[in-house]
Amino acid sequence: MPVPPLVPPPDVASSAADGAQRRKSDHIEVVRAGHAASACDPGFDAVRLVHCALPELALDEVDLSTRLLGKPLAAPLLISAMTGGPARAERINIHLAEAAQELGIAFAIGSQRIALERGGAAGLGAELRRRAPDVLLFANLGAAQFVRGYGPEEARRAVEMVGADALVIHLNPLQEAIQPEGDRDWRGVLDALGVLAAALAVPVVVKEVGFGLSPAVARALVARGIAALDVAGAGGTNWALAEGARGEGRTRAVAAAFADWGVPTAIAIRLVRAACPTVPVIASGGVRHGVDVAKAIRLGADLAGQAAAVLPAAMESTAAVVEHFTILRDQLKVACFATGARDLEALRRVPLLDEA
């Protein structure tokens, strides 16, 4: 089967890009309205950290600093990918970039497909790196595009567009299957990602979008050179429901059956960490607060990410985003203190209630 050209005729490209922009803007409204919340429990409430009534340390001694992919971070936190139409994307991403810089945490931008195919930044340009010169910054493209004309050159352009330190490739087959205009042929994606990882000068990170990575998929990705994995488990935003909310009739009916689909985040962390013991793991999907972050780290994650939870703050201001993640960070710090963990390595050794 011939591969569709990367850049279709101008009228087709413009129409497709306009449709994609409308879709991205619809996603923001659907998430804000609460129509895409997973019916699956992310699993963090079932995890109990043993409380330490004699921590033998001062709260101010707790050190949350870490490193990922060679970059220092003040705390193990990631602002996960989100986007909207170009006008929204620019405002949202500036707020997120400035907050990430102020707090010293990682930042992943939303999909750059529209920006690449339209030849403009669409809110995802060099301005982000200017506002966040020191952060661990992730570019972002969809996996399905790499069997539909994309290759290492498009990936390089996405990375260079924002001066990224790494490239996130998102896996969203269920979302695409529900989406009327979705990419439904995923044959050859795994090998294409292996080619990409070998060719790109920066690390390639692969993430699900809210249904979890299985051990088998995680091992296959690592075997092909993927540098880090974001389990993005079930329990947060459900992109099948998001597409159902955008659709009508049959689309909504099909999506409804997947309301609680996926591997819960807490379980996905454990499974992927066991399958890939030496690879950095990011936990996202239903992370509500700093105690969930502490549990994610204890289960085997290196970083924890939030997207939908910070969206209202991202639409408001940089200060609102800073306040949101400062609270998350402080909650994590207190959780470390209350378990007697001086740093993240100690937190990883804190006993769990069912193991004590």
UniProtKB/TrEMBL annotation:
Residue stretches of biased makeup (Pro residues): 1-11
Cofactor: NADPH; Mg(2+); FMN
CDD domains assigned to the protein according to its UniProt record, in alphabetical order: IDI-2_FMN (cd02811)
EC number(s) given by UniProt: 5.3.3.2
Region of interest: Disordered: 1-23
Main EC class the enzyme belongs to: isomerase
Keyword Chloroplast: no
Subcellular location: Cytoplasm
Family according to the record: Belongs to the IPP isomerase type 2 family.
Subunit structure: Homooctamer. Dimer of tetramers.
Name of the protein: Isopentenyl-diphosphate delta-isomerase
Gene (name only): fni
